[in-house]
Write a structure and sequence with these properties.
7 helices; 4 strands; single chain; four-stranded mixed β-sheet; about 170 residues; alpha+beta
């Protein structure tokens, strides 16, 4: 996913601000990346470059850390974050099928963001709603007993809401 110039600038400025709170001890590298992730929602390449320079390590070392831990995102999150629960109960009741339905419908893989940046798709370990498996969260709203047909319905409902918002915005102008 290509970043805009504004996103690159924001990544660099945020990284520099975060790094001002840390010395150059390598033990601070992961907490620094976590703080950048918390502020930006992801750790973009320009941020990794700034971090590598600050800690005097190779860029590939920072990239290796970001890609090793699944808590870090490499792409900006979508406006709507879809999280498919893959805990034991959800897995046993078809969580993989639901994940495949989202992947197919959004045309993205797990951990990615759609080109229009409307949706990002992630897996979560367990959301604690095991009796309602399989579960999907959309922007932290729980959707229980999801089926592939329900995935279609949820996206259709989203599209209707978006059309309504666009129509309202057109009336306001």
């Amino acid at each position: 996913m290509k970043l805009t110039n504004e996103e690159k600038t924001a990544a660099i400025e945020t990284s520099l601000r975060v790094l001002s709170n840390y010395n150059q001890e390598k033990g601070s590298l992961i907490p620094t990346l976590q703080q950048i992730q918390n502020e930006l929602g992801y750790v973009p390449s320009p941020a990794m470059e700034v971090v590598a320079e600050h800690f005097n390590v190779m860029k590939v070392d920072v990239y290796s850390i970001v890609t090793f831990y699944n808590q870090f995102r490499l792409t900006p999150p979508g406006k709507n974050q879809v999280k498919v629960c893959m805990g034991t109960a959800c897995h046993m009741r078809g969580g993989n099928i639901i994940m495949d339905s989202w992947k197919r419908r959004l045309e993205i893989d797990c951990g990615e963001t759609s080109e229009d940046r409307e949706f990002s798709l992630d897996r979560v370990a367990c959301v604690g709603c095991c009796t309602q498996a399989p579960v999907t969260l959309i922007n932290d709203e729980i959707h229980a007993k999801v089926t592939p047909t329900r995935v279609e319905g949820l996206l259709y409902a989203y599209q209707l809401d978006k059309d309504k918002e666009n129509k309202k915005a057109g009336e306001d102008n």
